[in-house]
Amino acid sequence: MSWVRRFSRTERTLHWVNAAGFLLLVATGLILYLPSLSTLVGRRPLVKDVHFWGGVGWISALALVALLGDWRGLLRTARDLERLTPSRFNVGQKVNALLSAAFAILFLVSGLLLWLGERDTRFRFAGTVLLHDGLLYASLVLLAGHLYLAVIHPATRHSLRGMTTGKVSEEWARRHYPRWFG
Amino acid sequence: MNRSDDFPEERGVSESEPKRYGRGLFLATVAGGLSSLVWGRPVWSRVSAALAPIDQLVPFVPTSGWRIYTVSGSMPTFDAATWRLHVGGLVENELDLDYEHLRGLPRATQVSDFHCVTGWTVRNVRWTGVRLADVFAGARPKAHAHALQLTSAEIPYVDYLTMKQALLPDVMLAYEMNGRPLPREHGAPLRLVIPEMYGYKNVKWLSRIDLVAKARAGYWENLGYDRDAWVGRSNGY
Q1: For site-directed labelling of B76, which of A151, B49, B51, B125 has its Cα 20 to 30 A away?
Q2: In b/e form, how buried is each residue of A52-81, taking b as 16+ CB within 10 angstroms?
């Protein structure tokens, strides 16, 4: 079987740093959010600290990977994402990536506002909690679809290899991305 | 092009495509999200009010709207055999009410909304408990007792109400919530309920009430929140 390069090392690192950070934040966030888990775990001040600094660490790590890695390559990928036409990515992948990036920014802003708002009324908005919660629900819907296609669905799950090893089979690339590898 | 060896081939990228819909989707999502800080709450209030009948059948969120805030490492536990509510300070007659005695005082029930200062609300909560006036009938506050110090078993949580606020008609010490004994995460066995003020005035795990001459700053008030936490009229709202 011959292989095609699908994702650069920078793209893969960015993806897995994003995934690890996001899952840590979902886990700690659910402990803070669901009364049953809050009661079970307790230690709210500690969980709050892990969640807050985890969020700061998440965004910082992403920025660091982008800066230290192949940022020119990432900029090319970003320019590709600007147009919703099939290329190296199909339209669904582009929408997923664009929404994930927008949600990350909104998570960061609303999370910082929650943290600042606890300290100063000027940063307190009635909609902050709603936005942060709504983003969680929207992200979980995206994640469920993403995991289904990347891990479960037989026709598409080969793509996971691209994100782990960086390469996919040439035949698969030809079939799924004719505009990229026709 | 300035391509590193590691980067995949870029083919099929249509820079000539005139409309950058992807960029538009990204910017619209960010703008919509940020502006929702202003419109999110009023819109959600209307939508959730309109959909309330459905929500009663199939809850939209798994939390029934509550979130549980605590300030210490673990939640207090309740043992009916040893639990007491101490009523002291500026009173003629100090009281140590056990759980049975407390439940023997005149019962009051009310349905009221619960508002948190962080922006969430739970509507139509059914509380059962006792009015403070019925507790004071036994303790007999002194003439210069103008405020209450409410101490939680969750150390170091403490808060204050003026006597006038504590005697508002819908203020109570609640030991039941929605027809069942107050759950642990809501402050079992006893919490203060003052619907006209934000949640942080509604002290959970209440263990003592001391009558004092003057209200001081409670736990959150020491961190910058208002002492008179009227819903919609305090804390920057």
Answers
A1: B125
A2: bebbebbbebbeebbeebbeebbebbbebb
3 state SS for B74-118: CCCCCCCCCCEEEEEECECCCEEEEHHHHHHCCCEEEEEEEECCC
Nearest CA in chain A to B35: A127
Query: Are the CB atoms for A63 and A10 separated by under 8 Å?
Result: no
Tokens of B194: 């003052």
- What is the gyration radius of the CA atoms in chain B, in angstroms? 25
Please name the residue that has the structure tokens 């029930």: B109
DSSP code of residue B154: S
Q: Which of A121, A118, A120 lies closest to A132, judged by CA? A: A118
Question: How does DSSP assign A68-91, residue by residue?
Answer: HS-HHHHHHHHHHHTS-S-SSS-H
CA-nearest residue to B70 within chain A is A44
**Which chain B positions have a beta carbon within 8 Å of A103's beta carbon?**
29, 33
Q: Give tens-digit pLDDT for A85-118.
A: 999 999 999 999 999 999 999 999 999 999 998 8
- The verdict on a CB contact (< 8 Å) between B29 and A130 is no
Tell if the CB–CB gap between A124 and B25 is shorter than 8 Å. no
Q: Between chains, do B72 and A45 touch, taking CB under 8 Å as contact? A: yes
Q: What is the CA radius of gyration of chain A?
A: 19
Tell me what the mean pLDDT of segment B94-122 comes to. Answer: 94
CA distances from A37 to A137, B151, B165, B183 (A): 17, 25, 34, 14
The model carries a pTM of 0.87
Q: What are phi and psi of B78, to 5 degrees?
A: -115, 130
Chain B residues with CB under 8 Å of A141 CB are none
User: Which residues in chain A come in under a pLDDT of 70?
Assistant: none
Nearest CB to B185; choose among A39, A110, A113: A39
Each residue's pLDDT tens digit, B138-165: 999 999 999 999 999 999 999 999 999 9
The two beta strands, B206-212 and B84-89, are parallel
Taking an 8 Å cut-off on Cβ atoms, the answer to whether A35 and B63 are in contact is yes
Q: Which ipTM was obtained for this model? A: 0.94
Q: Determine how many CB atoms are found less than 10 A away from the CB of residue B119.
A: 23
The residues, any chain, with a CB within 8 Å of residue A24's CB and separated by 6 or more, are A50, A54, A58
